[in-house]
Design goal:
It is a single chain. The chain has 145 residues and is mainly alpha-helical. It has helices at residues 2-31, 38-65, 70-76, 83-112, 116-136, 140-143. The protein has one domain (2-143). The chain has six helices and no strands. It is elongated and about 55 Å long. It starts with a helix and ends with a helix. Bound molecules: protoporphyrin IX containing FE. Protoporphyrin IX containing FE (HEM) is lined by residues 5, 8-9, 12, 15-16, 52, 55-56, 59-60, 62-63, 66, 68-69, 88, 92-93, 96-97, 134, 138-139, 142-143.
């Protein structure tokens, strides 16, 4: 459905911006030896996690309804897709699911620690790797068209 991919396309800006903010905030907190606060650090990390999960749900819905998702795999077969089609139908969904799993692990891990430095480190590393994975499989040309 058109509305799903439009929403997925716009939410992508917000998710990427929040991931960038959350990772920068965690790195600055770690390097600056700051206290991990509920008001700021916890909220930024949780809001980012929620947005990533919302984007995951939207992405799954797009995958199952759009012609460039599951239908492309069924019609063309794994070997019949060119690299652009494979990016949309296989690499982007697969890598982004892994990225969001890592972000979720980073969130859960940070809660187990008492020390601020360990909390910041968990967010910085797991959200950071998640962000890099997501950036590595964005269909840039299609997105900006
Ligand atoms: C944080 C994670 C994600 C981000 C930032 C993201 C971002 C994007 C962007 C920017 C596009 C291009 C939209 C356009 O052409 O205007 C796209 C397309 C797509 N995404 Fe995601 N995505 C994410 C996760 C997922 C996941 C987890 C899935 C599936 C399980 C998924 C499935 C798709 C599909 C199938 C398309 C092609 C849509 C179409 O052209 O019909 N995405 N995504």
């Amino acid at each position: 459905m058109e509305i799903l991919s439009t929403a997925h396309s716009y939410l992508a800006y917000v998710v990427l911006a929040m991931l960038f903010i959350a990772v920068s905030n965690a790195v600055l907190g770690l390097v600056g030896k700051k206290i991990f606060t509920l008001e700021k650090d916890y909220r930024i990390s949780l809001f980012t996690l929620i947005l990533a999960h919302l984007q995951l749900v939207l992405g799954l819905l797009v995958f199952f309804t759009s012609t460039s998702g599951l239908k492309a795999i069924q019609e063309l077969g794994m070997g019949g897709m060119n690299s652009a089609a494979r990016l949309l139908a296989v690499e982007h969904p697969f890598i982004n699911i892994i990225a969001i799993v890592l972000i979720t692990i980073g969130w859960s891990r940070h809660k187990k620690f008492m020390e601020g430095a360990k909390k910041f480190k968990s967010i910085a590393i797991f959200y950071g790797i998640g962000l890099l994975l997501i950036l590595s499989r964005i269909p840039w040309t299609q997105w900006f068209n």
